[in-house]
Amino acid sequence: MSSGKIVDKSAQHTIQKQSECVKSTAPQNVTVILPAFNEEISIGSIVLLTRHYADNVIVVDDGSSDRTAEIARKAGAEVIIHEVNKGKGAALKTGFEAADDLGADIIVTMDPMVSITLPRYRSLSSLS
């Protein structure tokens, strides 16, 4: 019986230490990557909405022929431009490298075409 109590106390102590550790953890840097190709109509709104939930927003303009990069920059995103379209995979790779340079702890990728539903995902704010 007494050994059972020791185990319980030990487990209780471990749980207490884990919760203390979580409480003292510094805020994490959340960075969102938006690979974009000819998204001038929606990119500004998406960047503005995303900035409410993330510390950094990176738009990788993947060879757009419209004003995607200009509008994203004006909305507050870090913008990286591929002069020619290299594809979504290459745009994401570029975004991951940039996020690492910004010191991201958490990286979220989003597709600008389907990001209009962002307000439904308010849980991102609990990450920061």
Which structural traits does this protein have?
128 residues; alpha/beta; 4 strands
| Uncertain segments | 1-19
The fraction of residues in strands falls at: 15-25%
Oligomer: single chain
- Count of DSSP H/I helices: 4
Main sheet properties? 4 strands, parallel
The total beta strand count reads 4
Please identify the structural class as seen in this structure. alpha/beta
What overall geometry do the principal axes of the alpha carbons give? globular
Q: Could you tell me the mean pLDDT?
A: 80
* Percent helix range: 25-40%
| Strand arrangement across the biggest beta sheet | 3-2-1-4
H-E string:
HEHEHEHE
Distance between the termini: 44 Å
Rg from Cα: 20 Å
Structural write-up:
The chain is α/β, with parallel strands linked by helices. The protein is built from four helices and four strands, in the order H-E-H-E-H-E-H-E. It is globular.
Topology:
Blueprint (H helix, E strand, L loop, with lengths): L1 H22 L6 E7 L6 H8 L5 E7 L5 H7 L3 E5 L5 H14 L4 E4 L19
Parallel strand pairs: 1-2, 1-4, 2-3
Characterize this entry briefly.
The protein has helices at residues 2-23, 43-50, 68-74, 88-101; strands at 30-36, 56-62, 78-82, 106-109.
